[in-house]
Amino acid sequence: MPLSSLVCVPVLLPLLAAGVKLAIGGRLRGLQSLISLVTLGLSLAVSVVLLVAADTSGPLVTELGGWAAPVGICLVADRLSTLVLVVSSAVTLCVMAYSVANSYDEQEHDAPMAIFHPAFLVMVAGVADAFLSGDLFNLFVAFELLLSGSYVLLTFGGTEARIRAGATYTLIALASSMLFLIALAITYGATGTLSMAQLAERFATLPEQVKVLVELTLLLAFAIKAAIFPMSAWLPDSYPTAPAPATAVFAGLLTKVGVYSIIRLEALLFPGGPVSTLLMWVALATMLTGVLGAVAQTDMKRMLSFTLVSHIGYMVFGVGLSTVAGLAGAVFYVVHHITVQTSLFLVVGMVERRTGTTSVTRLGGLMRAAPLIAVLFFVPAMNLSGIPPMSGFLGKLMLVQAGLAEGGWLPVTLVAAGLVTSLLTLYAVAKVWGKAFWRGPRADRMGRVVESEERTGEDPVVTTTALPAALPLSVAALVTLGLSFTVLAGPLSALAQRAAAELMAREPYISAVLGRHP
């Protein structure tokens, strides 16, 4: 069996498992969990095989329905798509293990496992389809597939706050999808195709004004999905209300699908176009506005949501440079950020389950009360801040070197903004660490425990709830994965360089899709 036949497995397997789980319904809960874990484990194994094959033999292509490209829709596994697919598969496996250990089906009686797990698997299938899609219309379908699952996860439990956040998220997603459809209509009207490989050839013959119109429309649609400034205001109010597993995978993966689409768009369809300068300005604004919002927060979830926005700016910076070094830095940072951001949201989920709050004004003494949780927060928080020699520092270093090598006042300004953002990120997470974990609660004159010198009007957190033993283990596995990127920084950065070079060359991708069908 040719390896190219495996390209569709990460998409079809979760969809098949979701259908089986819906057929089972609320019965056999142990079997429900087993199906989810085995499905995601097999998807991870297949993704690793595809990554090795794509790195050694070039892009792998499978044609859906037996129709050859560019007439038919194809899935393409190259270095970039398989690298992010491997990381996303590992992350979703850890998040599913977390959700099984956390027994959300028992806590949320109005939204049982029979709903959560199939929706999660549908979302995973959509993410994989987006990474592997070789056709713009199929990319649109992939977005709708992952969004259909995310709508369910975001409103999981049906609380007022979640319904309100879900309504905002749904409206933003529908607006983005409408823009995407408009861009597809313009693209097809101008070129007669939606195959990305064929578009890479046909865009070269279009008038510059038409190319810029298509590029800006597509970028706007993807920028909303990636929460790039100024289209990022929806994220801090939407993500924190969802259950911890959903929030974690939203923060770690869904925004990265938008970033991945921008990388693919700019490298394959519009290399070195006039919009690159605009992307650097947007990256600058995204970094600074996001991190300033993070510094001002007193809630752990909202702080992490704002840091998520700010660090998207690093990736856009790498794309805007339009160089192999810049793209390599962006790819490395995407891989790093998926694991670190997911880890932090899962840890905050454990804090919330143990204490009932994520407000740093009501927390204190967690370093003594829950040392394992404290360590699991501290390690990815330092990684996010870019403390040497962690992968966050290495990813920022790659981007700094790429910016300085490019030269010019705007790239150098972005380098400076990146350093400032890193320092302010460190300040934001250190503030959370100091208030929630390091400081101890003190007693007032009445003997009551308080957390700060100034009373907030809220009841202090005194009691805690024990956590399932397997819960921190799933988070520890994800934190270890993030640390492994530091140990394997050499091979990983080299792979990112090869992926970026392949992206900028374009010909390997185009030939793999169209070359065998002249």
TrEMBL record:
The keyword Acyltransferase does not apply. It is found in: Cell membrane; Membrane. It is a multi-pass membrane protein. Keywords: Cell membrane, Membrane, Transmembrane, Transmembrane helix. The chain crosses the membrane at residues 33-54, 83-101, 113-132, 139-157, 169-191, 212-235, 278-296, 303-324, 330-348, 369-388, 408-429. The keyword Cell membrane applies. Residues 133-424 form the NADH:quinone oxidoreductase/Mrp antiporter transmembrane domain. Its main location: membrane. PANTHER family: NA(+)_H(+) ANTIPORTER SUBUNIT D1, NADH DEHYDROGENASE. Belongs to the CPA3 antiporters (TC 2.A.63) subunit D family. This is Na+/H+ antiporter subunit D.
